[in-house]
Amino acid sequence: METGLSLMDQTINNSIKHISYTLSIQINLNGLSFCIANSEHKVIALETIIFGTQLNPEQVLDKIKYLFKSNVFLQRNITKVNVVYNNDLYTLVPKALFDEKLLSDYLKFNIKVLDNDYIAYDVINSHDVVNVYVPYVNINNFFFENFGTFTYKHATTVLTENLLIAEKNSITDSVYAHITHNSFDLIIIKQGKLQLCNTYYIETAEDFLYYVMFAAEQLKLNPETFSLIFIGAIDKQHPYYKIAYTYIRNISFGTRNNHFEIAETLKNISDYQDFTLLSNF
After folding, report:
1. Strands (E), 105-150
2. Is the pTM of this model over 0.85?
3. Are 26 and 64 contacting, i.e. CB atoms less than 8 angstroms apart?
């Protein structure tokens, strides 16, 4: 008895191998997510993996290696890779004050910088701001060894770039809460100008409300008038949404700026979910 793929299966596999795909992957120490788009700018796969505990960069790399070996979508002909690092090892510096020789000095006021830490930066041209941060070098090396040239950014770079475009002509005050597994990024934009970008690790809805209200108070924002806009891993049933709805008058969900088609199998993804991942093509 003959075994193996049918002629039709072989034809399909051969055609898949000759199509170019773009990978967008977001990496955190407690999980990762990725999506793949084809050459026609259609997103055909999107997956999220939660580790259950916070790992170190070496353990995360092991997870990534296993994922590339085991996931069928990652066996395709990926010719472009965009990596997003989602951590709190960053700080924003006004472009007018930025000096490439002082990278560690900018960070040391917010985090503990080790002598062997590699420090990178992203220029956010839309607002004359530079995002200085620590990527994971071992993970960068993996992608370079397997794909050659690739791009990487910090998650808050992707957020601020896209949100500032959306708020460019705004005359109101907007508070964006980007929700992830056990943290959230808070971005405050007043009349089109970036006022704050910070990341908070939280355990309860009360923690979330405290950080939002404290930041709003420091920037003299009135909860009766500013808009709280949710993006990321949240819906109307989420505890963060429910507690915010009790204390803040104007609450809504955001919308991604990018224009691409999502495959029929992924149509249940809302416009505000997987914001950084799907905004990084």
Report:
1. 120-124, 129-133
2. yes
3. no
C-alpha neighbours within 13 Å on the C-beta side of residue 51: 19
Tokens (6 digits) for 13 = 């596999």
The 10s digit of each residue's pLDDT in 66-91 is 999 999 999 999 999 999 999 999 99
| 123 Cβ contact partners less than 8 Å away, ≥ 6 residues apart | 95, 129, 130, 131
Q: How many CB atoms lie within 10 A of CB 130?
A: 22
Nearest in space to 30 (alpha carbons), one of 197, 207, 183: 183
E-strand ranges in the chain read: 21-28, 31-38, 42-50, 78-85, 90-94, 120-124, 129-133, 151-154, 173-179, 183-190, 193-201, 227-232, 250-253, 261-262
Alpha-carbon distances of 116 from 23, 40, 104, 108, 136, rounded to whole Å = 29, 41, 11, 14, 11
**Do residues 198 and 186 touch, judged by C-beta distance below 8 A?**
yes
Q: How far apart are CA 143 and CA 184, in angstroms?
A: 27
**CA 209 to chain centroid:** 22
Strand (E) or helix (H) holding 146: helix 137-147
Classify burial at 156, counting beta carbons within 10 Å of its beta carbon; exposed 0-12, middle 13-18, buried 19 or more. Answer: buried
pLDDT, tens digit (0-9, with 9 covering 90-100), for 261-270: 888 888 788 8
Under DSSP, the state recorded for 206 is H
Distance CA 280, CA 74 (A): 18
Quick one: which of 124, 195, 188 has its CA closest to 153? 124
